[in-house]
Q: What sequence folds into this?
C-alpha cells in the first residue's frame, strides 16, 4: 500500500456487509503457528469487575461453549495460544458482531478480558461540537479485569491493571506471518507504529491503545486503527523473552476480513524518559473524550483524536480568495501561544544586501534587509523590489533563520530560509497553500544553495542536505509554560506529536510526513504539514546544543493566510535505535 | 445583647462548641421553654419555672437559636456552592441563586439566573475549569483564612450577608488554531490556569415560600 493511511478513502461498510463477512469467524481464527490445546476439556468460570460472568467449556482446541451472565449457551470456534504462564484465547459469537479475547494468568488466576464489537452505532461529538457516528468498521473494545473462580477459594485480591510502565518503550515485532511492525509506545493511550511490510513509505501513524500490566515483565497491549481501517491488534508480550502472542481482527484497506492469531518475536529498540511523578503508576484511564460526548462515559470509551472530522474542506480557489482578503505576516509576535518560549528575534541581517542562489535552476533572490522587521527582495529577472515584513532568529552562532511571504503569490507562498553567515550555505523551505487533498493544507519542499554576500566564500559542491540524524529522537517542547508537546521523529519522512496531560503523562497524538535538513552539527530544520488534521505547516530550526527551537507556522483558512512565529524550549527525552529498519527493501 | 446582627466567627459558631456552648448555657439558665427544651434535650430538666423574665430570656434565646440555625443554613449553602464549583457541576449552580441574583466576577456583573449566572458558570467557568478550591499560597496573610469568615443575619431574618475567604483555580482557554491546543482540549486541558485568592462577599435572601436561603449577590474581591 502506498497511499498514506490518513489519506486512504476506506469504505463505509454497512452493518449488513460486516455481518456477512463475520460469518467466517464462527469457526474461530486462523494461526500460522498452530493453536494450543491448553484449554481442551477444561471448564472455566470467569468473573469480571463491572463486566460479564463468562462460563466456558472448551470441548476441543478449537470449539467452546459460552454462557454469558447465566444466559443461554452459545457454541463458537476459538483459538488459543500460550505465552509462558498466560493462556490467551479468542472467539467471536456467531450471529453477533462481537467476541471475547481472554488472557488468563495461570500463576495468579487473574484474567483480563477484551470484549470487542463492530457496527457500534456509537455517536460522538467532535471538539467543535459536531455529532457523528463512528464507522461500523472501527472495532470497539471494553476491558474487564477479573479472575477465574475456583470452588472453595477466595477470589484473588489483586487485579491486572492499566500501566504507564510501557510508556516510552519501543519494540520491533516480527510476526509468524512475516509482518514486521515498529511499535513506539510513546503515550499511555496511543501508539506510534510503522508498518514495515504492509506499507511502502515507512511512514508512522498514531492509533489509540491500552496498556495492561500482567507482571513485571509481561503486558497486554491493544491498538485500534481509528480514523484509518479500524482494524484491531491485541497481544500479550513478555519482555524477558521478547515474544508475543496475539490476535488481529478487522477489515483491511481492501475490505478483507482479517481474523487471525499470531506469535511474534521482538527487539526492544529503546526507552524514552517519561515524566509523570514517581508515585504515578498510570493505573487510572484517560477517557476524557469531548466533554459533551453524548454517550460519555459509555462502554468502549477511549481517547481518540479525530482532527479531520473538524477540518472543513476548502478548494485552492476558495483559499486564494480568502488570501486576497487577508494575508498577514506575524500578527501575534511573541504573544502567540506557540511562541511564549521562542528564541529572540535578531537584527543581524539589518543593513545587509545579498543574493541567495539555489541549485538546479532554483530561484535566485536578491535581498536588501531594511531593518529588524522589514526587508526587500526581488526575484532574478524582475525589475522591482517587493517589501515584506520578516522575522529572523540567530538559530546558532551566525546562522540566521528568517521567513517572509512571497508578495502576491498564487497560491500564497512563503519561504523559511536558513542562511549560514560563516560558510555561505543556505536552505530554503518553499511553503505554499494547497495539497492534492485540501486547498487549505500546505505543501513544502527544500531547496539548497549558496549566498553571495560580501565576506562570504561559499563552497562549490558542499550543501545542506536532507538528513535522518534525528530519526528516533524525542524531545519535549514547551511552547509556553502551559503548552508542552513531545515530538518523536519516528522515521526519515515522518514525525509525531503528543500532548502531555495534566500529570505529564503523554496522551493524544497525531503524526504527519515531514522532512529534516541538516544545517550544522546538531542543528537541523524540521518541516511538516499537519496532514488530515488542520493543514498547518510548521518549520522549525532545532538546535540540539541549546535544546531550543525557533521557527514559523504557515496556514490558510476561511479568514485568510497567516505566517507566524513559533518556538519552544526543549528537553531531550531519549532516542529509539530504529534507523536500520528504514530504507528501500529489495 | 444585640441579636439583630449577631456576628458569627468560628469562636462562637456551633461548629466550635466549647466557648459558644458555655455562653449558651449561662444565658439559658433554668427558664427555657418547653419548645426550646424539646429542641435542646440535653438541658430539658432545667426548664421548670415560668416567670416573666425567664420567658423573655427564653424568647431571646430562641431568637438566637434561630439566628444560629440560619447561619448554619447559609454556611451550608455556601459550602454547597463551593462543592459544585470544585466538582465542575456548573449547571447546578444557578439553582442556589435567587431568580434576580447576580454575580460579580472579574469586574463584570452577571445578573439573573438564566441570562447571567448560567452564562457565567456554564460557559465562562466551564471553559476555564474555574472555581476548584485550592490551598492559599504561603504569602497570603494569615487572616485570609477561614478565621475571617463571617455571617450576619439581618433583623428581618429574611436577608443576610456574609464574607468568606476564597482561594480558587481560575483559568482561560488557550486561543490557538494549533493541533496541540485541540489535543489538550480533548484531554480536558488546554487552559492557562492560575490561583486567585481574596474575599467573597455574599448577600442572601430567604425565599419565604419554602423557607430556604438563596444567594442574592456574590462578589469576588481579588486580593492576589
A:
Amino acid at each position: 500500500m502506498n497511499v498514506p493511511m490518513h489519506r486512504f478513502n476506506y469504505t463505509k461498510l454497512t452493518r449488513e456487509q460486516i455481518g456477512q463477512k463475520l460469518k467466517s469467524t464462527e469457526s474461530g481464527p486462523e494461526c500460522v503457528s498452530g493453536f494450543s490445546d491448553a484449554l481442551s476439556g477444561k471448564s472455566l468460570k470467569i468473573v469480571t469487575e463491572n463486566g460479564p460472568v463468562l462460563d466456558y467449556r472448551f470441548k476441543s482446541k478449537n470449539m467452546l461453549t459460552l454462557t454469558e451472565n447465566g444466559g443461554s449457551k452459545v457454541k463458537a470456534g476459538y483459538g488459543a495460544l500460550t505465552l509462558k504462564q498466560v493462556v490467551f484465547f479468542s472467539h467471536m459469537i456467531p450471529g453477533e458482531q462481537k467476541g471475547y479475547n481472554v488472557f488468563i494468568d495461570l500463576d495468579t488466576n487473574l484474567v483480563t478480558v477484551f470484549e470487542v464489537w463492530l457496527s457500534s452505532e456509537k455517536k460522538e461529538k467532535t471538539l467543535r461540537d459536531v455529532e457523528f457516528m463512528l464507522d461500523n468498521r472501527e472495532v470497539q473494545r471494553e476491558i474487564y479485569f477479573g479472575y477465574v473462580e475456583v470452588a472453595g477459594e477466595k477470589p484473588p485480591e489483586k487485579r491486572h491493571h492499566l500501566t504507564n510502565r510501557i510508556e516510552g518503550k519501543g519494540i520491533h515485532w516480527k510476526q509468524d506471518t512475516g509482518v514486521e511492525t515498529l511499535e513506539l509506545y510513546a503515550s499511555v493511550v496511543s501508539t506510534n507504529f510503522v508498518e514495515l511490510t504492509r506499507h511502502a513509505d515507512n511512514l508512522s501513524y498514531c492509533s489509540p491503545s491500552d496498556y495492561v500490566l500482567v507482571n513485571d515483565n509481561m503486558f497486554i497491549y491493544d491498538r485500534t486503527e481509528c480514523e484509518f481501517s479500524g482494524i484491531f491488534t491485541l497481544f500479550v508480550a513478555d519482555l524477558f523473552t521478547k515474544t508475543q502472542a496475539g490476535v488481529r481482527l478487522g477489515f483491511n484497506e481492501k475490505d478483507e476480513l482479517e481474523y487471525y492469531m499470531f506469535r511474534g518475536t521482538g527487539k526492544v529498540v529503546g526507552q524514552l524518559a517519561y515524566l509523570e511523578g514517581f508515585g504515578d503508576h498510570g493505573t487510572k484511564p484517560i477517557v476524557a473524550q469531548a466533554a459533551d460526548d453524548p454517550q460519555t462515559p459509555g462502554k468502549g470509551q477511549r481517547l481518540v483524536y479525530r482532527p479531520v472530522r473538524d477540518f472543513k474542506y476548502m478548494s485552492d480557489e476558495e483559499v486564494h480568495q480568502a488570501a486576497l482578503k487577508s494575508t498577514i505576516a506575524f500578527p501575534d509576535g511573541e504573544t502567540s501561544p506557540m511562541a511564549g518560549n521562542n528564541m529572540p528575534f535578531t537584527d543581524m541581517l539589518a543593513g545587509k544586501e545579498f543574493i541567495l542562489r539555489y541549485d538546479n535552476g532554483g530561484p535566485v533572490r536578491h535581498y536588501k534587509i531594511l531593518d529588524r522587521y522589514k526587508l526587500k527582495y526581488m526575484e532574478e529577472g524582475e525589475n522591482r523590489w517587493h517589501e515584506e515584513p520578516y522575522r529572523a532568529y540567530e538559530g546558532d552562532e551566525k546562522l540566521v533563520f528568517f521567513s517572509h511571504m512571497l508578495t502576491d503569490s498564487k497560491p500564497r507562498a512563503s519561504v523559511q530560509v536558513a542562511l549560514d553567515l560563516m560558510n555561505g550555505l543556505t536552505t530554503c523551505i518553499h511553503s505554499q497553500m494547497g495539497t492534492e487533498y485540501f486547498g487549505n493544507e500546505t505543501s513544502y519542499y527544500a531547496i539548497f544553495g549558496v549566498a553571495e554576500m560580501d565576506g562570504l566564500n561559499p563552497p562549490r559542491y558542499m550543501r545542506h542536505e536532507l538528513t535522518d540524524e534525528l530519526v528516533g529522537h524525542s524531545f519535549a517542547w514547551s511552547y509556553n509554560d502551559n503548552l508542552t508537546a513531545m515530538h518523536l521523529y519516528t522515521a526519515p519522512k515522518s514525525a509525531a506529536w503528543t500532548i502531555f496531560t495534566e500529570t505529564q503523562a503523554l496522551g493524544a497524538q497525531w503524526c504527519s510526513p515531514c522532512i529534516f535538513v541538516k544545517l550544522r552539527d546538531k542543528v537541523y530544520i524540521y518541516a511538516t504539514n499537519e496532514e488530515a488534521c488542520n493543514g498547518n505547516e510548521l518549520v522549525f530550526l532545532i538546535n540540539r546544543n541549546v535544546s531550543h527551537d525557533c521557527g514559523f507556522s504557515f496556514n490558510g483558512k476561511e479568514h485568510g493566510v497567516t505566517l507566524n512565529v513559533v518556538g519552544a524550549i526543549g528537553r531531550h527525552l531519549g532516542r529509539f535505535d530504529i534507523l536500520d529498519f528504514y530504507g528501500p527493501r529489495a | 445583647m444585640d441579636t439583630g446582627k449577631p456576628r458569627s466567627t468560628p469562636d462562637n459558631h456551633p461548629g466550635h462548641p466549647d466557648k459558644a456552648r458555655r455562653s449558651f448555657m449561662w444565658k439559658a439558665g433554668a427558664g427555657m421553654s418547653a419548645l426550646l427544651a424539646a429542641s435542646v434535650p440535653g438541658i430539658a430538666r432545667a426548664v421548670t419555672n415560668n416567670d416573666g423574665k425567664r420567658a423573655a430570656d427564653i424568647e431571646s434565646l430562641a431568637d438566637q437559636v434561630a439566628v444560629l440555625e440560619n447561619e448554619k443554613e447559609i454556611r451550608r449553602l455556601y459550602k454547597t456552592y463551593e462543592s459544585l464549583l470544585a466538582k465542575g457541576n456548573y449547571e447546578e449552580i444557578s439553582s442556589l441563586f435567587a431568580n434576580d441574583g447576580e454575580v460579580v466576577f472579574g469586574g463584570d456583573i452577571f445578573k439573573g439566573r438564566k441570562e447571567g449566572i448560567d452564562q457565567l458558570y456554564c460557559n465562562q467557568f466551564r471553559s476555564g475549569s474555574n472555581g476548584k478550591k485550592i490551598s492559599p499560597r504561603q504569602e497570603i496573610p494569615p487572616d485570609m483564612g477561614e478565621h475571617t469568615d463571617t455571617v450576619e443575619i439581618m433583623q428581618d431574618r429574611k436577608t443576610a450577608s456574609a464574607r468568606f475567604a476564597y482561594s480558587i483555580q481560575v483559568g482561560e482557554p488557550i486561543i490557538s488554531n494549533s493541533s496541540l491546543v485541540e489535543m489538550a482540549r480533548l484531554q480536558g486541558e488546554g487552559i492557562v490556569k492560575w490561583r486567585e485568592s481574596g474575599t467573597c462577599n455574599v448577600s442572601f435572601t430567604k425565599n419565604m415560600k419554602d423557607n430556604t436561603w438563596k444567594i442574592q449577590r456574590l462578589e469576588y474581591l481579588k486580593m492576589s
Observations:
- The CA atoms of residues 378 and 384 of chain A lie 6 Å apart.
- The longest strand of chain A covers residues 560-575.
- Chain A touches chain B through 33 residues (CB under 8 Å).
- The helical segments of chain A are 15-22, 316-325.
